[in-house]
Amino acid sequence: HHHHDGIRNMIRNQMIDGLTLDSKTKPDPICEPCLAGKMHANSFPPSENRAKELLELIHSDVHKVGATSRSGYKYWITFIDDFSRYKTVVLMKRKSDAFNAFKLFKAHVENKTGKKIKVLRCDKGGEYMSNEFIGYLDSCGIGKQYTVRNRPQQNGVAERANRTMDEGIIAMLEESGLSKMFWEDAIAAFVYIGNCC
Length: 197
Prior knowledge:
- The chain is an alpha/beta fold.
- Helix content is about 40%, strand content about 15%.
């Protein structure tokens, strides 16, 4: 399904015999079949539901950095308040540290705001699905919203934040000339400044 200019170029350069293009009609600038052929999944409509108060909904996702930090960290877990979009990042050495990271986050934000977390939304990764983690959420009265596996669009707030933070720290480290092992310092600065803005 070749593009129109490419076909005209082949005719003009006599790269093909017997083909004429005599239509004077301009081609449609958006070719629906080409879009369908290139689309990997149907687009997800953006959610128009937003939390009405702090800690009503927390988005979370784990991100593998790809380099071990100076302190031995390989991952971070993101917690984002849906109402304020305030981000908290907890560094982890193993994915299995997610449960302890959530408990630290919960204690901190509930103490700071005087409110309780109502719902946690995550991608149903194994780090969120241990009996201990689920039991803890249940005992605290925290609702669970799981998105469909391998559909990062459904957990878009946390996924997009992780991508933005990852790109930001790469840019910071590249500009500074520092090794990627300094990512834990870069992520701390990036999140702090982002929350201030």
